[in-house]
Amino acid sequence: MKFIKSIWSRLFLEERSSMSLSVFRMAVAFTVFAHVFPSLMHPHDNYLPTAFREFNASIFPVYILEWVIQSPAWVIYLFTGLFCLFSFCFFVGFLSQFSAIATMICCYYFYALNSFHVGTLSWDILLVTLFLMCLVPYHGDYFSVDSFLKGREGWRRKRPYFLQRLLQVQIAFTFFYTALWKIYPKGNWLQDNPIHYLMNMPPPGVTKWFLLRDVLRDKPEICYWIGVGVIVAEFLMLFLLFIRRTRSSAIYAGIFFHIVLILTLDVPATFFFLFPAQLLLFINPDHWLDWIEQKRAYHRSASRPVLLYDGDCRFCRFCVKRIQIMDMYARYRYTPYQSIPQLASIHPSLTLAMCRREVILVEPSGKIRGGIDALRRMSLNLPMMYLWIPLLYLPGMGILGSAIYRVIARNRGRIRLPQMS
After folding, report:
1. Is 281 in a helix, a strand, or coil?
2. Which strands, in side-by-side order, build the sheet including 306-309?
3. C-alpha to C-alpha distances, 99 to 29, 74, 137, 395, nearest whole angstrom
4. What is the count of structural domains for the chain?
5. Statement to judge: residues 348 and 382 lie in one domain
6. Helix-helix angle 96-113:73-92, to 10 degrees
7. Which of 57, 115, 139, 399 has the highest local Cβ count within 10 Å?
8. Do residues 136 and 108 share a domain?
């Protein structure tokens, strides 16, 4: 009994860094959005009463389907708006568990309303993944608005490995059951040659043109043995992914397999965004943590840019602490200008008036940046800001951002802030 408890604790309850789960959360959110949103662009064809509809009574009770089909147009548009809102919140990690649950409810609503556009095997797999993400109140403690607001260094915080282990089991058994389906009597790849059939189909809709397509079209024996190789590889993935010595090779093989699928077949977004990201969950997150700490140690020993801020301003301290959270690799040094006896020791052109007016970034090269320009430059080295870089560097954002920054800077003493954790 102790042995079973020990194995169970080691497999599911052992605490590890959940940072890699943050990246996977974004992959799930983006995949769900990429799968559903195109169908929302044509509501008259897909969801409104004018659409051709199919219903999945094996998933939903009949009374649920009858209730959903009576939805007036405004309810459908309401769920469309809610889906876009909550999928975005789930993507950025704002109230992530609530956003995940709300997104899943919207997905099931569209599924019940018309399963014709979303009722595929890849969609069912995606919904299972989304359901697993709803089970826990955390989806990684980095790359999320939640961790930013709480003021915590998320890459250090450890969580039970339960969710990541379930996601690992899911992707491994997805490979296994896909291989099992390929030897099922109704679609037996050992008796038929579906790859050769696909190579001889017209490209639009199913297959794409690729370099070896014309070669495989006339080589049925090669297509057959490729199919057998796919079956063997998918069966083996269930074991290779969980064996430490073969795990890395299995991850590379799985990602390569999905890249080949994407390049040769018109496959759903699940194959492109979700499955490769899910395979990366097999990497021990503590290895990521060790790598981050090595990067931090390296940058601390090197000459770093210095961010000067007003240490007497509560709002400034609040913002700098949040920037430090985003600075995962410790690329910057943060110093209140009041702690420097002679500002000229940092840079000859620095003055007290400059430091009081805005934050100042002094780079090792001697270049000085202030205000929004300093924040834009720092965003290039802050992983949590990568998604916002295109917005920060939009044409005209330098002028607009500077104006907004000046307004906030003049009124920073009046801004009410939550208690710093």
Report:
1. helix
2. 333-336, 306-309, 360-362, 368-370
3. 10, 22, 11, 32
4. 3
5. yes
6. 140
7. 139
8. yes
pLDDT digits over 343-354, tens only?
A: 878 888 888 888
Mean pLDDT of 365-394: 86
Using CA atoms of 84, 85, 87, 90 in order, give the dihedral in degrees to the nearest 10.
170
Give the pLDDT mean for 391-412.
82
3-state helix, strand, coil in the chain (%, to 5): 65, 5, 30
Sign of the C-alpha dihedral, residues 340, 346, 348, 351? negative
Looking at the structure, tell me whether residues 380 and 326 fall in a common domain.
Answer: yes
Model confidence pLDDT, tens digit, residues 272-314: 888 888 999 998 888 888 888 899 899 888 888 989 888 888 8
Contacts of 74 (CB under 8 A, 6+ apart): none
Q: How far apart are CA 284 and CA 21, in angstroms?
A: 11
| 275, 372 contact by CB (below 8 A) | no
Mark which of 131, 156, 181 sits at the end of a domain: 156
Cα 398 to Cα 393: distance, rounded to the nearest angstrom: 7
Cα–Cα distance, 371 to 407 (Å, whole number) = 11
Q: Are strands 333-336 and 306-309 parallel, antiparallel or unpaired?
A: parallel
Please write the tens of the pLDDT for every residue from 197-214. Answer: 888 887 666 777 877 888
